[in-house]
Specification:
Elements lengths: L14 E3 L22 H9 L7 E2 L7 H10 L4 E2 H6 L13 H8 L12 E3 L3 E5 H6 L5 H5 L7 H14 L12 E3 L6 E6 L24 E9 L4 E8 L4 E13 L4 E13 L4 E5 L3 E5 L6 E12 L5 E7 L10 E7 L8 E6 L3 E6 L4 E6 L21 H13 L3 H25 L8 E4 L2 E4 L3 H14 L1
Parallel strand pairs: 5-6
Antiparallel strand pairs: 1-4, 2-3, 7-8, 8-9, 9-10, 10-11, 11-12, 11-13, 12-14, 13-14, 14-15, 15-16, 16-17, 17-18, 18-19, 20-21
């Protein structure tokens, strides 16, 4: 009998569609012509994430005989959707050369530089979570983030800001497996919080904050898909007690580059330190899916910046793509400058998913960030059945189960039902002459701002105290 590593053979829908402005809301194919392939090992692996004592749902039977065999074995059990999302194992893609017909179909649709919004993409790049949840991984080291507010010197604050920024990308890529998260649906949201190592636990709930089940001593995170065309995600994080927030928006624009797919991350983030009345504006690197015809892998590339208008401190960061011949993957360099200086007082180099070393202007050197040794803090999310119907894990739970258990009809039917509902709602809005109303973010001058940021709520609290 094969080991659990045979999960790499799990069957999923053969094609994936990106979101578009019109009536297409695809991320998985509605074609069901190929038979599902499930074996005893797949069933055993599925049962490992099945529990009758947690958040559950019956496994549906399918028309495919082999899929039906697996479903029948599980009919007396329940799917624990929360366990599915906590299962971080991602099967190795291996070479895609065996998917010749899928690749040929992809290549027949594209030209160099073409926007991939409406292009059929192979399903083997699907990751079992939404892009909104992936953005939460920017805060997988919440202690590094909140520590920015602890420094009294603006120079030290900028250095810590750069340290958090450089450490924030590796957790979103759990492995070298090149997969793409679900395209969020318009109005979809994701909420979570992080415990912060080294801080005393606070029992006082942040009842008016973005995550009402979090306390004021935890780092809260909320994200929303605020636009369908162009696809824009907005997200906000705050630590009440440290009085630090981040508000950001990212428009993901994909292009076909020949042997690669490029995803341009258009947008910016703003970190606010309320006690110092400082704002740090930062930008994001592009992502690339390389070697799409052989063994796909992911890298980051491009120039980004971090700047504080009030203090004048700023940093330039370069995510270096691997040369065609030779060279290393995932290289990064950064230079940090004092106000009005053209020579950096701090230079950093290394790998954004490994070790980064610092060299100071006085000649000192040190390890600046070692992502291989610092623990990733697990995000805390409400159980699926306690989530609202438009929250990511609840929206996608049946699709996730289908992908995990290699059940093509389950994944396809669940995804199609979700997409059909979106199409019908979009048609109805068009017929009524109404526009979509965002849930917790609003647009201001091209930026997407959280409706109830910490600064606004603290001002309201102060006014209430003064009037009482």
């Amino acid at each position: 009998m094969a080991s659990d590593d045979s999960l790499s053979n799990f069957f999923v829908p053969i094609t994936s569609y990106s979101s578009s402005e019109d009536e297409d809301f695809y991320d998985a194919s509605e074609e069901t012509s190929m038979s599902a392939r499930c074996d005893e090992d797949a069933t055993n692996a599925a049962e490992k994430v099945v529990s009758s004592s947690s958040i559950t749902e019956d496994v549906p039977e399918t028309s495919s005989s082999t899929s039906a065999d697996m479903s029948n074995k599980l009919m007396e059990k329940k799917i624990d959707f929360d366990a599915l999302y906590e299962d971080n194992e991602e099967e190795d893609l291996g070479s895609v050369e065996g998917h010749g017909s899928v690749i040929s179909h992809l290549l027949s649709q594209v030209k160099l530089g073409m926007d991939l919004t409406k292009v059929v993409l192979p399903t083997f790049i699907l990751e079992r979570r939404s892009l909104l949840e992936m953005y939460a991984d920017f805060f997988a080291h919440p202690d590094i983030f909140v520590n920015i507010a602890d420094h009294s010197d603006p120079k030290d604050r900028m250095v810590q800001m750069v340290r958090w920024y450089l450490s924030s990308f590796h957790a979103g890529r759990k492995s070298s497996v090149a997969k793409k998260p679900y395209n969020p649906i318009l109005g979809e949201t994701f909420k979570c919080y992080f415990d912060v190592p080294g801080l005393d636990d606070s029992l006082e709930k942040s009842s008016d904050g973005p995550v009402t089940f979090a306390t004021k001593g935890q780092l809260s995170f909320i994200a929303e898909q605020v636009s369908h065309h162009p696809p824009i995600s907005a997200f906000y994080a705050e630590h009440y007690n440290k009085r630090i927030t981040l508000c950001a928006h990212i428009w993901t624009k994909s292009k076909f580059l020949g042997l690669s797919i490029g995803v341009h991350m258009i947008g910016q983030g703003c970190v606010s330190l309320l006690d110092y009345d400082e704002e740090y504006i930062l930008t994001f690197p592009n992502g690339y899916g390389r070697s799409i015809l052989t063994v796909p892998w992911v890298e980051l590339g491009g120039s980004t910046t971090i700047s504080c208008a009030k203090t004048g401190y700023n940093a330039n960061v370069e995510f270096l793509t691997k040369p065609f011949y030779g060279g290393k993957k995932h290289r990064i360099t950064a230079d940090v400058f004092q106000p009005n200086d053209k020579k950096a007082f701090l230079s950093i180099s290394g790998e954004w998913n490994g070790v980064m070393n610092a060299k100071w202007a006085d000649g000192r050197t040190e390890v600046f960030v070692d992502t291989t040794s610092i623990p990733i803090i697990k995000k805390q999310v409400l159980p699926v059945t306690e989530q609202e119907e438009f929250e990511s894990r609840r929206l996608w739970c049946k699709v996730t189960a289908g992908l995990r258990f290699k059940n093509i009809e389950r994944a396809t039917d669940a995804k199609f039902a979700l997409e059909q509902k979106q199409r019908e709602e979009a048609k109805q809005r068009k017929a009524d002459g109404t526009e979509w109303q965002t849930r917790v973010f609003h647009e201001v001058g091209g930026n997407w701002i959280y409706d109830r940021p910490l600064e606004k709520r603290l001002q309201l609290e102060k006014q209430q105290r003064e009037s009482s």
